[in-house]
Write a structure and sequence with these properties.
Length: 225
């Protein structure tokens, strides 16, 4: 099926929504959105196709698209047969795709028909991380199709008992004059407020105490007059 789709794309068997006369390089492709593929045909014409329509037109009414994936050169619309005897859908372990920014559809092998097929299941990314990796895993970025190895951006929640996952700009005031500030990698950086004040404002700076509501200066650093 996969190689056949690549040939069909090259042969111009499409359901075009529009054409762009600008010359392009045959084989180039991109996803306009999760359902729309833009590719360059053998005549160097850019074609725009709806992936669901494409799968039905080229394979039949029982075929469906699991979303556009420009990186999958052999099956960019991820066409797959959706039914068994017209009733229950089946899938294979490597079939996984983002429904939108919050939901993911994957192949649940625990509800399968043997060792090689399962049934499609749709969950929020946070549920998916906990279901497939364990209760200590969470998703903080949602589903991102370009992160092919970890679509839901699952991360382990705890490191040595300390909070290890957060949302950038989160601030925690801790015992001993410490402050925890979430960085862009979704982990907390820990600082001693006295040391942070000296680093930020120079020698002689002191902390008036930690206040997470003061996001620009949670250690409330000042230089005494």
């Amino acid at each position: 099926m996969a190689s056949g789709l690549g040939l069909l794309l090259g042969a111009g068997c499409t359901v075009p929504l529009e054409e762009n006369p600008d010359v392009c390089t045959t084989g180039d492709a991109m996803c306009r959105d999760v359902d729309t593929l833009v590719f360059c045909d053998e005549n160097h014409v850019r074609q725009v196709v709806d992936c669901n329509d494409y799968c039905v037109a080229n394979y039949g009414v029982d075929w469906t698209s699991h979303g556009c994936s420009a990186e999958n050169a052999d099956n960019r619309c991820q066409c797959d047969y959706d039914q068994i005897d017209g009733m229950i859908a089946q899938c294979y372990p490597d079939e996984i795709y983002c429904q939108d920014e919050e939901y993911i559809t994957y192949c649940d092998m625990t509800q399968g028909y043997g060792d090689f097929t399962g049934t499609p299941a749709t969950l929020t990314c946070d549920q998916y991380c906990k279901t497939t990796l364990g209760p200590d895993y969470s998703s903080y970025l949602g589903c991102t199709a370009d992160n092919t190895g970890n679509l839901c951006n699952c991360e382990y929640d705890m490191i040595d008992g300390d909070i290890a996952e957060c949302v950038p700009s989160d601030i925690l005031c801790m015992d001993g004059g410490q402050v925890a500030i979430c960085n862009d990698s979704y982990y907390y950086d820990y600082f001693n407020c006295t040391d942070k004040c000296v680093t930020d404002q120079g020698e002689g700076a002191i902390s008036l105490g930690c206040d997470p509501a003061v996001t620009e200066d949670p250690c409330q650093c000042v230089i005494p007059e």
